[in-house]
Write a structure and sequence with these properties.
390 residues; alpha/beta; Spore Coat Polysaccharide Biosynthesis Protein SpsA, Chain A; eight-stranded mixed β-sheet; five-stranded mixed β-sheet
Length: 390
Amino acid sequence: MYNFVTIYGKIGVYLSDITVILLSAGNATRFRSDKTTHYPKKQWLYSGNQPLWLHVAKEFEALGFDDIVVVAAQEELEYMQSFATYRFVKGGDTRQASLTYALKNVESDYVLVNDTARCCIDGAMIERIMYAKGDCVVPVLNAVDTLYYDAKPLERERVKMIQTPQKSNTQRLKEALAQGRDFSDESSAIASMGGEVVFVEGSPLAHKLTLISDLSQLPCLSVPAPTQFVGFGVDIHPFEAGKTMKLCGVAIDSVDFGFQAHSDGDVAIHALIDALLGACGMGDIGMLYPDSDHQYANIDSTILLVDTVAKIRSVGFAIINVDMTIMAQTPRLLPYKEAMKQRLSQLLAIEKRYINIKATTAEKLGFVGRKEGVMVQAVANLHYFDWSKI
């Protein structure tokens, strides 16, 4: 294992003079194509018990870098912060915007910018980058295939395939990005200002994860750990006259009252959302869909459940099964149980056999027994999405 803490006092850059910026805010649209909408974002694929972005950050930490900035999507920023104590910055809509935001938090003389998609860190390549001097130091690979551009062959000896991480002079990079032009990487931005771009030998290990097929070319990744996660949710709503009652997204037409709530009051779905969020450590329904937000007024709770399922899938989890108990003195729910299981199967995109719904009365005890409302308890089991079986 390389560790550069004591090396760069003689040559190159002191580690105290450099900040690692890890870009992890992308939507992974090419990785999550129309045929793979249930796949996580690639930064949330798990290697063992670590999401990809954390795996990469720890690789740099193990090499001796102690100033690491992780750029996250706004909706994932708080969740990422529960994993580690690195500095976290909200990303933008593009790679360049994310990098610009990150640089506002950097005071070191140099930055080492890496894309999470280049997750296999080659210590020898990092050493070459660190030793070299220039406004921007870039790892490259030579082209080995015949290349054409606009139906004309190119001299492949003159073509370089650019990789990351790239080491840049922080001030020069800030000035280059402030031009208001779009650049695909740091080297092209600095080169546009006449800065010195230095090439060093790259590494096949720094292969970029773009498509699902790229997973087979990343030997540093371990299969996801077989860990299972359990979440528990409970919710209570009183009755309200003149509303349609819904449970598990199914209208209960045997009564002429519904639930008092900011949304449609589907108490079963609300308990299930809390169970799902609890299993992956993502807070609770009140945090994601607060009743102080007018956009959720009278909203169909199935919309919230579909959004919750998309969130937990995007950060690397898959649903194993769910179980719930509905405590209601009224209405009688036996005639609706099969329809409720079928509806949840559609909303969760899992087989109906993995959904269990139990209904019970309160033996006329408490607010449930007095027919004042309904309470639901739900349990959800999750595991990491297993990309090794794709």
